[in-house]
Design a protein that fits this description.
Layout: E1 4-12, H1 20-33, E2 39-41, H2 65-77, E3 80-89, E4 92-100, E5 106-111, H3 119-122, E6 131-134, E7 137-143, H4 150-158, E8 163-168, H5 175-189, E9 192-197, E10 199-201, E11 206-208, E12 212-214, E13 220-223, E14 229-237, H6 271-274
Parallel strand pairs: 1-2, 2-3, 7-8, 8-9
Antiparallel strand pairs: 1-14, 3-4, 4-5, 6-7, 9-12, 10-11, 12-13
């Protein structure tokens, strides 16, 4: 079993909508206060605040001065960061996760592929999943609604991610949904999962907080409440459970089945269901 640790700070904050300078200042202050961390994670769309009305107001790109400020600060503090921001992308605005390593290099940009609600009109959807490398460890990135689709986390895990990181702006009444999904994605992929959500009242929603680190066994090794806080804890990087058997299926390129899914005829016996080709009793047809 190969294991390693990253010290991760979960920056569960309420950003100021349409005030990127205030949010940038808070990010830099948080980095200074947690220099002992290897990675600080901020929520979805944190830089400009979660807005679907004016997403272009504080959109950045890879050459934006604010991104350069964060790169410089990451290098000075000697830590990596992952944060959400609106991004100029393909003639529109993407809902993106930026990753900067401890050397101030831009390690990657992930654009949210599964947009939710009003985001469908406000943002351009991404069309690829990515992993990023930090301190020799490969992490798979997701943004909020992405996490609700098991295929996303599975694809990242099979692509070599040793842990999953989700940044979120999850709102009421869906707090328990993400609590469940964050744990499920960790257990079913045997990958530790870092989940960081917004708090407070935004442009139109009340955000639920509940940031956490979940181990491969589903244990919450770090838990934040509903309010602004920074929770720091070690992230144990392992792809083997201490409690569950190894699942060789997770290492395959896809799940292996005997054949395609069958549409069974109504009211007729079938040996693949009865288990006995000689049985003549039909499975009762469901009412129309």
């Amino acid at each position: 079993m190969t294991t390693s640790l990253l010290q991760v700070a979960l920056a569960q904050f309420a950003p100021v909508v349409n005030d990127a300078r205030a949010n940038l200042t808070r990010m830099m202050e948080t980095m200074e206060q947690h220099r002992e961390a290897d990675l600080v994670v901020f929520p979805e769309l944190f830089l400009g605040g979660y807005t679907t009305r004016t997403p272009d107001m504080h959109a950045i790109d890879a050459r934006h001065p604010m991104l350069q400020e964060l790169r410089d600060h990451a290098r000075q503090c000697g830590l990596a960061i992952i944060f959400g921001a609106a991004e100029h992308y393909r003639g529109g605005i993407a809902n993106s996760a930026f990753c900067i390593d401890r050397h101030g290099e831009l390690a990657g940009i992930y654009r949210k592929t599964h947009l939710f609600g009003a985001e469908l009109e406000a943002f351009v959807a991404g069309d690829e999943l990515i992993t990023v490398e930090l301190d020799g460890h490969r992490l798979g990135l997701m943004i909020c609604f992405d996490m609700e689709f098991p295929e996303v986390a599975r694809a990242l895990s099979q692509a070599g991610a040793k842990a999953l990181v989700t940044i979120s702006a999850n709102m009421t009444p869906f707090g328990m949904d993400h609590h469940l999904f964050a744990m499920a994605r960790a257990i079913e992929n045997t990958r530790a999962h870092v989940y960081v959500n917004q708090t407070g009242t935004g442009e139109a929603f009340e955000f639920t907080g509940g940031s956490m680190i979940v181990s491969v066994d589903g244990e919450m090794t770090a838990v934040a409440g509903e309010h602004d806080t920074v929770t720091q804890a070690p992230l144990l990087l392992t792809d083997r459970s201490a409690q569950r058997p190894d699942y060789p299926q997770l290492r395959r390129g896809r799940c292996q089945y005997v054949g395609p899914v069958k549409m069974m005829p109504r009211g007729q016996p079938h040996e693949s269901i009865t288990g006995d080709a000689g049985m003549t009793d039909a499975i009762p047809a469901m009412p129309a």
